Amino acid sequence: MAERRAFAQKISRTVAAEVRKQIAGQYGGSPQLFKNLNAGTLTSNTVPLTEAVEPVDFEEYLITHPPIVESGPLRDLIEFPPDDIEVIYTPRECRTVVQAIPEEGDTDPHVRDCVRSYTEDWAIVNRKYHKLGTGFNPNSLDKQKERQKGLPKQVFEADELPDSSGYQDDQDDLKRRSMSIDDTPRGSWACSIFDLKNSLPDSLLPHLLDRAPNEEIDRHNEDQRKTNRHRELFALHPALDEEDPIERHCVPDVPKEHFGQRLLVKCLSLKFEIEIEPIFASLALYDVKEKKKISENFFFDLNSEQTKAMLRPHIQTAAISTLARSAIFSITYPSQDVFLVIKLEKVLQQGDIGECAEPYMVFKESDANKNKEKLEKLRSQSEQFCQRLGRYRMPFAWTAIHLMNIVNSAGSLERDTELEMSLSERKGSWSERRNSSIMGRRSLERTTSGDESCSLTGFRPATLTITNFFKQEGDRLSDEDLYKFLADMRRPSSVLRRLRPITAQLKLDISPAPENPHYCLTPDLLQVKPYPDSRVRPTRDILEFPARDVYVPNTTYRNLLYVNPQSLNFANRQGSARNITVKVQFMNGEDPNNAMQVIFGKSSCADFYKEAYTSVVYHNRSPDFHDEIKIKLPASLSDHHHILFTFYHVSCQQKQNTLLETPVGYTWIPMLQNGRLRTGHFCLPVSLEKPPQSYSVLSPDVPLPGMKWVDNHRGVFNVEVVAVSTIHTQDQYLDKFFALVHALDEHMFPVRIGDMRIMENNLETELKSSIAALNSSQLEPVVRFLHLLLDKLVLLVVRPPVIAGQIVNLGQSSFEVMAAIVNRLHKYLDTSQDMHGRNSLLSSYIHYVFRLPSTDPNSPSPGPGGLGGSVHYATMARSAVRPASLNLNRSRSLSNSNPDISGTPTSPDDEVRAIIGSKGLDRSNSWVHTMGCKSAPWGSSPGSAPETMQAMERCGNRMSSHTESASFLQTLTGRLPTKKLFHEELALQWVVSSGSVREGALQQAWFFFELMVKSIIHHLYFAERLESPRKNRFPERFMDDITALVSTIAGDIVSRFQKDLELVERLNTSLAFFLNDLLSVMDRGFVFTLIKAYWKQVSTKVYALQNPTLESLRLDFLRIVCSHEHYVTLNLPCSLLTPPASPSPSVSSATSQSSGFSTHVQDQKIANMFELSVPFREQHFMAGLVLSELSVILDPDNEGMFGLHKKVVSVVHNLLSSHDSDPRYADSEVKARVAMLYLPLIGIVMETLPQLHDFTESLNQWGRSGGVQGTTVCSNGDDAEAEGNNMINQTVAMAIAGTTTTSPMSRPSSFLLNSQANRQHGSFSAESSRSLLICLLWVLKNADELVLQKWFTDLSVSQLNRLLDLLYLCVSCFEYKGKKAFERMNSLTFKKSKDMKAKLEEAILGSIGARQEMVRRSRGQLERSPSGSAFGSQENLRWRKDMTHWRQNSERLDKSHRSHRTRAELEHEALIDGNLATEANLIILDTLEIIVQTVSVTESKESILGGVLKVLLHSMACNQSALYLQHCFATQRALVSKFPELLFEEETEQCADLCLRLLRSCSSSISTIRAHASASLYLLMRQNFEIGNNFARVKMQVTMSLSSLVGTSQNFNEEFLRRSLKTILTYAEEDLELRETTFPDQVQDLVFNLHMILSDTVKMKEHQEDPEMLIDLMYRYCTKLMNVQENQF
User: How far is the C-alpha of 1050 from the C-alpha of 311, rounded, in Å?
Assistant: First the structure.
């Protein structure tokens, strides 16, 4: 071939090396810098593969190249679908039947905002086709299984063979039978012929003997091959073993109400020895260690109806909500210190607690008859007390259950468990008895020290019977005392043990709460779905008071107040006050009628009351209280709301003219102080007389004139007030910020905040300082009000307020505080991050909550609504037409994004330079000229830019620096200007930020990027511009800002990756996701230039440093950008490679008009499509980057990148497997277009051939010759000698001499061209090689055949031979392992799991899993070397050889070696592997056919056809399915009929090989294989005969093959071969054409001879122990062979 193309010159490595040397000399760079597949001669226009080319202007291209196709799947490849992006408003799921909202409406703006924030729909941006990108790759195991359904079972001989032991017996049996006819060798000839004549032939192939033109045969074969093929190659290939691919982007969880682990407690019954009065019970959880009550009280009533009747005068009808007997407790921090405390109360009566409890301790139920009279007396006393004192309670008894003991015991006992708890005096220990029969010695006090898992989710339900209660002691009622008791309870020598218990029986059921319990009421008494029937007794959801902070944003309206009176000291009060109760009321005025009905009832009573009474301790002037009063707070509070406490003395004895209750004191707590809710501990003074008028606005601490106080106005009453509210932040800084924002809303001045009055003129400073002060607020309230807080900050950015006629720009302050808040969340809540370090609270805010103000579909006007804004927000933006009279010194100084750069930039690079260039970021000057600021180069390190900072401070901000007031704008336009766009302002603020603010934004770049993208999409959606052309969607200044931003961030990545790898990894993925998102909304050509800018910066550094970590980062970046769902469209798959409209039309693009193929291939150079030429990389920009990276990293000279092989191959593998399963590309024509983007892959893989893992080494199973040219293909020369081949092969000799043989006959084996050293350092792991080869096969399977054929025509002989070598390797790589191999591997795996080596490997190779590493890394525990992050750890570990062969097979053979896989799994695995082997080989066969068609017209066809035959024979020698073999034999028959001289004159060795393979298949146990092999063998004889009336060569080769086959093959079955011989005879008899010639007789002779040899060889094996017989047989055998030889000569 005169015209050897550049690619061909590359094959001879010496030339390439020389070229590299020269270039390296010229450029002084590293050798691979300028490696370029299409640069044989370096012309001025080539762009090295290591650099990105100038991308095509995508939008321009689409306009100038309208699609040829009207509609259909091909048309869809050209442009994104019109419904690509939508903004969906999804109603949020409400847990309750009715939505929680305040009853009295939302008068207060803050309440209104909160409620809106908890009820508005989610605003979700949906990329409709997102799921089709590789980020959601279907090759996860489950999806693979789905795609593998309905695969046909491939039949393999390897699976059909019986076990060798049983098989041997059958053989012996057969032999005995055949010997018994005539034991002497001489008589056996006739009987052998007799055996043959009586055999049954296999079915004959129809039309085999018809003469048909070759084209027709080829067409028929092709049709047969192409029917019923598996569409998706990757469905058959195991998914890559990647824990979490970098581009996986999880959808964040929907924000919802927080619950801990939930526990259901059912109260079944409470029985005492005597039943004389009603008893009231409550349950609550306490944490002893934290000394905290961790749930509200659950009140329940288990009294009989008869007992309840005693209280009838005091109780109106009971509301159903108060009749609950089961409750669900939530525990966020379960620990060994949690107790369930049960307290009992009874109606107040005369006498202290001890006296009242005495009867319960003395009387036994068994003695009821004996004590009848006494009991009657007690009952009648109780009735009197109930009548008179029914509204008051007294403490009675208590007990506690150590929760974890129950959970742990229940967990370890079978069935539902019954635990009986009692305090047995004799044993001196608590015991839990199960079913009362077995005594368990589990001591209740014993608890493990925190290390035992404290999970409440999976234990078995337990029924508890509690038999001991302790009586309450009047002087030890406080929580402090309770904690002491509980702590004491856990000690073996408990004080409680010495107390005399009250015996009773309380039965409880404790179980994990069901997922969706029916009939459940929230703490606010709302019904939870499902609630089928309102009349059913409900279960109460009990509010948790978590032991430690819980960081979850509010999502529902809740406004509760808990008042806990603790103690009272009336010791110094004159007069009688002994049985004291406190009446608690919530007032909204001072009149007694102003008491609000907002106090929750307890049990068996009404829902709400106007007052509550604390329980009474008899005759105690300084009582402790243990009551909890729960109040439903009104949404809006005024200064008049307060809690009023009235103290009463209750007279228990009924005397004449004494009142039941006498007021003995008053005190109160105003609810608001300076507009903020008052909560916490109070020690209040108590007044002796009713408070005077207007007392409620003052605190009782204020000494009011003329009032008498207990104990000289000292604090005597301790009370605690706790709010659980999603309205009140209870944080001073948040309160102040929200109050100021609402003041702006209402426009009411002065504003009172705290004790300050803020006038309008100092509002701006206050507002700014309150924004800055948000950093000081507590993290917990910040998180609780996160959604509202961020919404308000966004609002301030988008609509700068007008204060005193001035527009105040708060963009900068808001941006700074946002960055600070986001960083705080990231730092302290690091457990809730995904693999990219995105905090889940923030990502769900962006995904569900964030929206542009007033883009709510429900808001009535497009004006400022949305986020509760009002007209007093001024907003600024660039209006398209500005009033001419604006007369400002620079028309753009009012803009909110980058002012224009002077002149028109020529290219994006120049733009970047112009922005960042020598003059620094001269923004400050462009805002306001009069300031005269200096500005420092931006992008310099934060410390070095004090000038910039000062400049910023002096200028304030681009907006607020204007001295003109907003009023002139109003006069000009008649109204306030329209609002700013959030994304533009955000980009601007980010670009101009510096110092710590910039650093903060960088740390959490993902947050601002995602906000920006959502803002952009919302803006386009609501402005109805998602349809508009992309080129004019955004103003130029915004584009400039984005360019500057991307450029500086790329700079940060490059400059900081060695110092701060963790940050840089996050930054790199964030940037990549951002660009991926922009491809959906912005000018795509513009985004390509951004990618190029990044590429350029990284390239420069990579090749300066030769650092694989940076290259690894770039691969991550590329992989994320390419995971775009329209990746194929972005690569313009339908474009013809015409010269693109590039800025400087280069020589290459002008000369490379290569083929586009619409219907037929034009006769043009097709090379550009197959090489990484500049036109290819410009047109298919992203695919070009992927393939260039592949080419550069796999370059053997690029040793530094060796560890990245696996990573770069998986990028390509991932893309292809995604395309393969994509429903949009199912159509074969479309797939061909997609495959076109990867055509250069073929050349790249050909280049890497010498480095690929050698799969042929281990596959010499059936005595097949090794690799090409009969040499053994292996990387170490020892194997060749092991084969007993001591002669030096000519090719090897020539290779050693440094030249290659050029005669067309000898094909230099590319495996041997490489020196050994080169193979050693460069060889890929089996896994990477296999991935690369499956990608190659995918391209060959799906590419357009005409295009392939055209390219093959262009290839030189040595290149085609290299391609054939590659196919040869593919055959070995995808060979079917066989079911037995899977079973062996399974048992091997099982053995290994016990093996220390496996553990060691697991530790070294980190099969612990990347996910854990990610978790560790996100917590900063992982000290990594630069190499640690970059490499797939399994690359190139030679000592794993024993594993590599099967490691990549199937799903990694049960990584953790947990167990044997089931037979079904093994079957499935074998099924998949069989289908993969079949499909892979059929693709190879298709390719071979194309090569044959291509070269059949050229003059150098012989050497290539020999190579084709070599691959065919190799594939026959491997484990193949019957389906493949029949197509393979058909191809082989066609090949021999087209080129008979090839076998019989040139490739004689191959003829021998072919005969051996055919005979081997003739003895197959599968009839279809035998039928095709016999047909092939018969035609081979026939064709040999037709050349020279004699088929001596075939005769000889067949005879030799047979003897070697029978002699060497272990599991050889003569019966099957006999049938095939009979089939051949049958063909000869039926062959009408040759009936008149000697051919049929010759065939018969040959067959009889073969059959005789067969029988003799079998017998020789049998008579190895009998020398005489053996010699006799050998003699006869040799005679046969000589006959055959003579016939031949």
Answer: 78
* Tokens 């969906």, located at residue: 88
User: CB within 8 A of 412, min separation 6: which ones?
Assistant: none
Average pLDDT over residues 1603-1609: 77
- Residue that the structure tokens 């809690």 belong to: 643
Do residues 405 and 510 touch, judged by C-beta distance below 8 A? no
Measure Cα distances from 1325 to 681, 1370, 1408, 1449 in Å: 69, 15, 20, 14
Tell me the backbone φ, ψ of residue 56, rounded to 5 degrees.
-70, 150
The three-state (H, E, C) secondary structure of 1247-1264, written as one string: HHHHHCCCCCHHHCCCCC
Compare 1422 and 752 and report the one with higher pLDDT: 752
* CA torsion through residues 1246, 1251, 1257, 1258, sign: negative
CA distance linking residue 254 with residue 1191, whole number of Å = 43
d(CA 761, CA 745) in angstroms, rounded, equals 16
Strand partners, 600: 608
* Residues pairing with 506 in the sheet: 270, 466
Residue 1461, token pair as written in the block: 């896989």
> Distance of CA 763 to CAs 743, 801, 963, 1135, Å?
9, 11, 17, 60
Question: pLDDT of 313-325, one tens digit each?
Answer: 888 789 999 999 9
Q: Per-residue confidence at 800, pLDDT binned at 50, 70, 90? A: confident
DSSP assignment of 1028-1051 equals S-GGGSS-HHHHHHHHHHHHHHHH
pLDDT greater than 90 at residue 1049: yes
Strand locations in 1162-1291 (E): none
Residue 612 forms beta bridges with which residues? 584
Long-range contacts of 1537-1543 (CB under 8 A, 24+ apart): 1537/214, 1537/217, 1537/1579, 1537/1583, 1538/214, 1538/1492, 1538/1496, 1539/1496, 1539/1501, 1539/1505, 1540/1583, 1540/1584, 1540/1586, 1540/1587, 1541/1587, 1542/1502, 1542/1505, 1542/1506, 1542/1509, 1543/1509, 1543/1580
1015 with 794: CB under 8 angstroms?
no
Q: Which residue has the tokens 């290939």?
A: 237
Please tell me which residue, 420 or 1661, carries the higher pLDDT value: 1661
Would you state the pLDDT for residue 927? 36
How far apart are alpha carbons 1532 and 1576 in whole angstroms? 8
CB atoms within 10 A of CB 428: 12
Report how far residue 826's alpha carbon sits from residue 6's, in angstroms, rounded to the nearest whole number: 54
Residue 1173 carries which DSSP code?
-
Residue of 741, 828, 821 lying closest to 775 (CA atoms): 821
Cα–Cα dist 810/826, whole Å: 24
Q: Which of 1012, 840, 975, 725 is nearest to 111 (CA)?
A: 725
The residue ranges of DSSP E strands in 378-533, in sequence order, are: 393-402, 417-424, 429-434, 438-440, 462-471, 502-512, 520-521, 527-528
824 or 415, greater pLDDT: 824
Q: With H, G, I as helix, E, B as strand and everything else as coil, classify residue 857.
A: coil
Query: What whole-number distance in Å separates Cα of residue 1025 and Cα of residue 1033?
Result: 7
Higher pLDDT, 1343 or 425: 1343
The answer to whether residues 411 and 459 touch, using CB atoms and an 8 Å cutoff, is yes
Q: To 5 degrees, how large is the angle CA 678–CA 679–CA 684?
A: 85
pLDDT band at 1216 (very low <50, low <70, confident <90, very high): very high
CA 1192 to the chain's CA centroid: 30
Concatenating the DSSP letter of every residue in 316-360 gives -PPPGGGG--EEEEEESS--TTEEEEEEEEEE--SS-HHHHHHHH
Contact 602, 560 (CB under 8 A): no
CB of 1046 closer than 8 Å to CB of 1075: yes
Stated as kind and residue range, the H or E segment containing 194 is helix 188-198
Q: Is 509 exposed, middle or buried (0-12, 13-18, 19+ CB in 10 A)?
A: middle
